[in-house]
Specification:
The complex is a heterotrimer of chains A (265), B (265) and C (294). Chain A has one domain. Chain A is 78% helix and 0% strand. Chain A has ten helices and no strands. In chain A, 45% of the residues are buried. The model of chain A has no long low-confidence stretch (mean pLDDT 86). Chain B starts with a helix and ends in a 6-residue tail after the last helix. In chain B, helix 1 packs parallel to helix 6 and helix 6 runs antiparallel to helix 12. Chain B has one domain. With 265 residues, chain B is mainly alpha-helical. The chains are: A mainly alpha (265), B mainly alpha (265), C alpha/beta (294). Chains B and C meet through loops of B and loops of C.
Chain lengths: 265, 265, 294
């Protein structure tokens, strides 16, 4: 409990900055929707004539960008990337920072199992992610409804947000695993950065060139396409399973390596 | 001079890694160019009949993906992204690293005025960026040329590439400024990734909406590659704004660092 | 009962030597010195005992429990003061102490105030703004507030002024009187001399000797300083039992361990300007150890 509280405290400022930025971005995005929608009515017809290959090449798939939901879903793609940055860095730093801060000699000589320290840190990560998602969800619902003139889409936003949450869990788990395996926070953060940039770039490549979509497994950004969620309201079971496996394995790695790790400051 | 060469020594490896990663990125994505360009040629002819709102909404305003430079321009958005993370990381760490690694007490008691320390360090970033840009431009020129039938539009190519350097200067200056403004930056990469991606997402939103106000916020919009290709030149007002921002932030860095308290061990 | 029992503890950092086959045991109620030059392996041994790092080979028990398997239970009764203390930013002294206290059961809250008073520590200042010495004091209070049965000190006095050092030693002695066992690592011999009953000497990763301090100092060695009035062979005094023989002009100085009459015989009949025989300081005894093993 004490470690958890300490971790929540020390991440509070960064969480507030992240939440504030998300609110601003959602606001800035939706602000212009009304004007955009008007210009879009004629566009919509043309858009429907698009061959599917073209649409998917632009990363839009089945999205109708002139509807507020389609419009929101385009932003959702970007939020996902930001959420990925937030989660992987959070996971990496929270696990590996004690040695950098030289507080390892304080914390790890306390009468607690290492596994309990790790659990507290992971729980703190989870709570941070939950808050991040709740803020994003609330901001989305509020700003979307402000400009929504048609059907209520709150349930769709909820579904999108749930996949955002799962993606954050994957990245946070990867980050924690790296933080546990690499015992230098700077190198751990570099590797996490490389992983995040690579997954993002791979998702761009897949949008661009369908023939390499076997790479889809490498990038969590592509596990739950917004278009599919909007159309079917379901998540692909195989990718849910893959997400689950990834999260569990990286958390297991985190515990295992932290248990065996030499603490050097 | 000693500070400068010490900085270069410490940062050379990182500069090479980051340069290699953007070179690798170009190399891999250019493999996809021949098949994509064939697909796109068909699409482009349809697309050109579409109203500009739609093209804007697709985020690909005027980039012609069937042309090598159009395709390269599309890739360049992501090169800007990666290069900016590197520049920002360098900017933040160069002055704050001493405090983090507790060597500030070593360096700052040497008989050198602080302004000279700042100058030497800024100069080291500048040299790294120059070397990186020259290396990258040279190698990517070779790569791109191999995909061109006939001659490459060298002027446009260089203009596109020089935008990398200028955006990097922007982020390096932001990094420098943040690093002296904030009392203690603990991890460089999370902050760099967060800030650069936030600006990137603003640019993505700006691209979809083409909101002139948003464009002023993000340097990615100052050097919109599609416009560079179209006009074979930069937007003068944005060019000047960029220089002014870099100048102001650098000046503030000198002033604040001059008065900054260095925390004890 | 042995509070600490170390059996052939070995730690390699990759290929680099940390410690090799370190064995010693510390009795309950004892203040045990652990001494050696920088880089000899003192901190490695201590960090292994605290399960901060894991041994390559060998084992150790504290309170008769395995340091790895029962690490977290053992640590309930250990107070550790590292050589360098760093704490979380943006915390006041009282915050870190309360945070530290939150890890233990049955903490006497008055003890924080009492210890802070002894160490002359302002509880309401920010850790960031404290001097090195004051941070050290936070470390001391933090390490002692749960009344540990075993106190592990890794070069604890650096950064403390002499007055504070004395207060600190008094504090440790009082804890010791109340039953705490102390493992005290240092490279400053006078400290060890003042506090400890026994001492393990470590060099280049190996324990080279375990000595009773009083015996070491009182019974074994005599320090000779002889100013000769006539020329003798350089090796004249180099007999069995002589160490650290130094000749400076006509003055010969050395440590001697053995029958004192032997040395008297050597001097007998020679012309001597001056003769000093005294108990060596601990430093000199240890210098002898280090050089002998080198």
């Amino acid at each position: 409990m004490n470690i958890l509280k300490r971790e929540l405290n020390s991440n509070l400022k960064s969480l507030m900055i992240w939440s504030g930025s998300m609110i601003f971005l959602i606001y800035a995005g939706m602000l212009k929707y009304s004007g955009f929608a008007k210009a879009g009515t004629s566009v919509n017809e043309l858009f429907n004539q698009f061959p599917p290959a073209v649409r998917s090449m632009f990363g839009l798939g089945e999205l109708d960008i002139t509807s507020i939901l389609g419009f929101y879903a385009v932003f959702y793609l970007y939020f996902m990337v930001l959420a990925g940055v937030h989660a992987i860095m959070l996971g990496t730093v929270i696990i590996s920072k004690e040695e950098r801060d030289k507080t390892a000699d304080f914390l790890f000589v306390k009468p607690v199992r290492r596994s309990k320290i790790v659990s507290s840190k992971l729980l703190a990560t989870l709570l941070n992610i939950i808050v991040f998602n709740l803020v994003t969800l609330l901001a989305s619902i509020i700003f979307v409804n402000m400009y929504n003139t048609g059907q209520p889409i709150t349930d769709k936003i909820l579904e999108l947000m749930l996949s955002l949450f799962i993606i954050q869990l994957i990245f946070a788990a990867i980050g924690a695993g790296i933080g546990a395996v690499i015992n230098d926070v700077k190198r751990a953060a570099s590797i996490s950065t490389a992983i995040l940039l690579s997954t993002f770039i791979i998702s761009v490549a897949i949008d661009l060139y369908k023939k390499i979509d076997f790479l889809i497994y490498l990038t969590p950004f592509k596990y739950f396409p917004a278009a599919d969620i909007i159309k079917t309201s379901t998540y692909s079971p195989s990718f849910l399973l893959l997400s689950f496996i990834l999260i569990i394995s990286f958390i297991a790695i985190t515990y295992l390596f932290m248990e065996k790790r030499d603490i050097n400051i | 001079m000693n500070i400068f060469s010490q900085e270069l020594k410490m940062s050379a490896a990182s500069m090479i890694y980051w340069t290699a990663s953007i070179v690798l990125f170009v190399l891999l994505f250019m493999f996809m160019y021949p098949p994509i360009s064939k697909d796109v040629q068909v699409i482009e002819s349809i697309l050109s009949n579409f109203p500009p709102e739609l093209r804007r909404a697709l985020g690909m305003t005027t980039l012609d993906l069937s042309q090598v430079l159009g395709f390269y321009g599309f890739l360049f958005i992501y090169i800007l992204l990666i290069g900016s993370v590197y520049a920002m990381k360098s900017g933040i760490s160069v002055l704050s690293e001493e405090i983090r690694s507790k060597t500030a007490d070593f360096l700052l008691v040497k008989p050198v005025p602080r302004t000279r320390i700042v100058s030497a360090k800024i100069l080291s970033i500048l040299s790294n960026l120059i070397v990186q840009n020259l290396l990258f431009m040279f190698i990517s020129y070779i790569i791109i040329s191999s995909y061109v039938n006939g001659s490459l539009d060298t002027r446009t190519f260089i203009l596109i590439n020089l935008s990398l350097f200028q955006v990097q200067l922007f982020f390096a200056a932001v990094g420098l400024f943040l690093s002296v403004l904030i009392k203690k930056i603990k991890t460089v990469l999370p902050v760099s990734l967060g800030v650069v991606f936030a600006f990137f997402v603003i640019q993505m939103i700006n691209q979809s909406l083409n909101d002139p106000k948003l464009a002023y916020i993000t340097p990615f919009a100052y050097f919109d590659v599609s416009k560079i290709i179209q006009n074979v030149g930069y937007d003068t007002s944005f060019l000047i704004i960029n220089i002014i921002i870099i100048f102001i932030l650098t000046a503030l860095t000198y002033i604040i660092y001059q008065k900054k308290d260095i925390p004890s061990l | 009962m042995n509070v600490i029992e170390i059996d052939k503890l070995t730690k390699y950092y990759g290929k680099a030597r940390g410690i090799i086959d370190v064995s010693f045991s510390v009795n309950e109620g004892e203040i045990y010195g652990f001494i050696g030059p920088n880089g000899a392996g003192k901190s490695t041994t201590i960090r292994t005992l605290l399960a901060l790092i894991y041994p390559t080979r060998g084992s150790a028990r504290i309170f008769d429990k395995d340091i790895i398997k029962d690490g977290h239970n053992i640590r309930k009764d250990i107070g550790y003061l590292p050589s360098e203390v760093f704490y979380y930013d943006n915390m006041k002294v009282i915050d870190i102490l309360k945070y530290s206290a939150s890890f233990y059961e049955n903490i006497d809250k008055n003890r924080i105030n009492k210890l802070a008073e002894i160490m002359d520590l302002d509880l309401y200042r920010k850790i960031d703004d404290l001097s090195y010495g004051n941070k050290k004091k936070v470390g001391i209070v933090q390490g002692l507030l749960h009344q540990p049965r075993l106190i592990i000190l890794d070069e604890p006095t650096s950064g403390l002024d002499p007055l504070m050092q004395q207060k600190f030693f008094d504090l440790i002695l009082e804890e010791n009187k109340n039953g705490a066992t102390v493992l005290f690592s240092s490279h400053i011999l006078s400290e060890v001399q003042k506090l400890c009953s026994r001492v393990a000497i470590i060099k280049e990763g190996r324990i080279i000797s375990i000595e009773d301090i009083k015996a070491l100092q009182k019974n074994n060695y005599k320090k000779f300083k002889i100013d000769m009035g006539e020329a003798v062979n350089d090796d004249y005094f180099n007999i069995n039992g002589v160490a650290n023989l130094v000749k400076n002009a006509s003055v010969y100085s050395f440590l001697f361990k053995g029958d004192i009459n032997q040395m008297i015989d050597k001097i007998h009949g020679k012309k001597i300007n001056n003769l000093i025989v005294e108990d060596p300081s601990l430093e000199e005894v240890f210098m002898h150890f280090y050089e002998k093993e080198a």
